[in-house]
Structures are given as structure tokens and as C-alpha cells.
């Protein structure tokens, strides 16, 4: 199974158009949040419509920059994995959108307790799958989450969940400058970085998992 993974689009459609071939070739497109810049449903609809020119096999969560109306829009499209799980091709996908509290008090933030409940709700629906993939806007605390100010922006609940459950892969974003891939507990944690700046991840899931970072020039 081939995944094209992006996060932190922030309303930019030009990189989607430049990545058209890569998107078409993927079995699934994963969007790990922050779809909008203006925080509106209308902008989210424009971004998703641009994506749908090339693929309608989309799994997504909203980001902390996205208002709850964007979560509702993704649910209406049947793309949202926030608090939900779905098994596709023998791989279990579940997700959590928004982020843990930030100093900026952004549009959609959840307490760590709320994040833990959301994670468990989705995981229960996919835990029997041979491989399990978490799509979380926020990285786990301490892993691919250091901001340019040196602060950690990840979620403690996501970290604890990965430590306590057999998750194979965690796809995330949120902290643009923390883009990259590393192993934590039993999982590969892959921060896609800012797709608005062209960054993305190509992931192949078979008996094992291979994730590589790429960049679209536009």
C-alpha cells in the first residue's frame, strides 16, 4: 500500500497541483491537519476539491489551525478519522485532530485527557489489524516536535499511547520545522512538515514500513 502524506497545507493548492502524479499513483492520500489558512469551511472545501481532481481515496484529520467546522466538513465527506478507525487492505488507520493546548490559543485545541479518549475510541475499531497507523496532527511530546524557539509542541497523550500500544506508524505534522522521521517505542514517527512549503512523505506499507521525505518545487 502506497501513501502520499501531507500536513499543514494552510490553503495552498499550487503544491497539490504540482504533486498530481504522485497523488494519482498513491493508494491513499493522508492529510494530517491544518488544511486551512483562513480557518473556514469554504477554504477547506476548495483545498479538498483540488485534491479530489487526482484522488478521492483520502483519510484526514483537522489541525489546531482549523475550526471545528472543518472537522464537520471532513466527516460529511467521510474522510475524517478523528476519534474513528478504519481498516483498509489489512491496515488499521485511526486518528486525532487538533492539538494539545498551545501558547497561541489556536482554533481547535484539546486537553490531554480529551486526546487520550479520542485516541482510544479510534484504536478500539482497528486494534485487531496486523498493522496499525495513527494519523495525528500533533506529534508525540519529545519526538519530531521541537519548534524553532526550542519549545516542545507535541502531545503527552500521543506519546503515552505509542508507549503503551502496538502502533506501527504515527503520521503527524503541526511543528513545521520538526519535519523528519525517527523511531519511538514500537512506532516509526514521521512528521510531514509543511506541505505549503512543498514537504511531503511517501510511505509504503507491506510486511514492513518504509517512509521517505520529499519536496515538491513550485
Features:
five-stranded mixed β-sheet, six-stranded mixed β-sheet, single chain, 218 residues, alpha/beta, Purple Acid Phosphatase, chain A, domain 2, globular
How far apart the termini lie comes to 27 Å
Proportion of beta-strand residues = 25-35%
**CATH architecture field:** 4-Layer Sandwich
Overall pLDDT score: 97
CATH superfamily: Metallo-dependent phosphatases
Please, could you describe this protein's structure?
- With 218 residues, the chain is α/β, with parallel strands linked by helices.
- The chain has one domain: Purple Acid Phosphatase, chain A, domain 2 (4-Layer Sandwich).
- The chain contains six helices and eleven strands.
- The protein has helices at 14-18, 20-25, 41-52, 68-76, 112-123, 156-164, and strands at residues 2-6, 28-32, 58-61, 85-88, 91-96, 131-136, 169-172, 180-184, 187-191, 199-205, 209-215.
- The protein has a six-stranded mixed beta sheet.
- A hairpin with a 3-residue loop joins strand 10 (199-205) and strand 11 (209-215).
- The chain starts with a strand and ends with a strand.
